[in-house]
Fold this protein.
Amino acid sequence: MAKLKFTKMHGTGNDFIVIDARRKQIANPGQLAKRLCRRHFSIGADGLILIKPSKRADYRMRIFNPDGSEAEMCGNGIRCFAKYLYDRKITKKHLIEVETKAGVVKPEISGNRIRVDMGMPLLTRSDIPMLGKSESAINETLTLKDSKARITAVSMGNPHAVIFVNDLNTYPVEKIGPEVENHPIFPNRTNVEFVEVINKGKLKVRVWERGVGETLACGTGACASLVAAVLNHRTEKRAEVHLAGGMLTVEWSNNNIFLTGPAEEVFNGVIEL
């Protein structure tokens, strides 16, 4: 049997299996993610992260969902990615450039807190991607099976549909989440954020992640939530985003979105394949 070393990490409860694949070839990583991310039957995680070499940046991050699909980017995952490299002295840089499917992203490491320049939010339908005739979707009505929801669509390198709710505790996230994720208006499916505005500087968010289900946190989802809140005149351009797994700080400055939060190592292990 082949043995594979891994590290389990999390960012505000969003947990990942991290594998250093700079010098090894991982055959069929989507299938490997399906196998390793199964909770109760395997290691269990919200995603599988591979550390790869890059010709465009310092390193390359590939991330796979538990259903085997490959995600473009992950805000919590890239903080774990950066901390893994720095803690092992693979890099001595505090600011590194990471190639992702969404472009080059720059996490900056300061102790247990990592600040990530997430780039510009994209609002046009073709960039999200999202079908429809209007240029963007801000507070747009989306018809579901038995109801309707008003969504604001944002891409943070991956698609998001943000829904504002009055009471996050009683809203049927488990029902509406998969309906919006798989709505035909989103050709690549979408992540879904349910947002309760506490005040101009504080949001509470529950996340339904594409290919995963409800998770304790989502970094790009926190960013998309702030963008949508600003576009709908609900918050300032800097806010605390409180998720089930903890708090992230998101700021919209000079057109770019900056995400700050923790990343922690849980344990190391070896699994026989």
The chain has two domains: 3-117+263-272, 140-254. Helices lie at 29-36, 75-87, 173-181, 219-231. The two ends are 6 Å apart (CA to CA). Residues 3-117+263-272 form a domain with the Diaminopimelate Epimerase; Chain A, domain 1 fold (CATH 3.10.310.10).
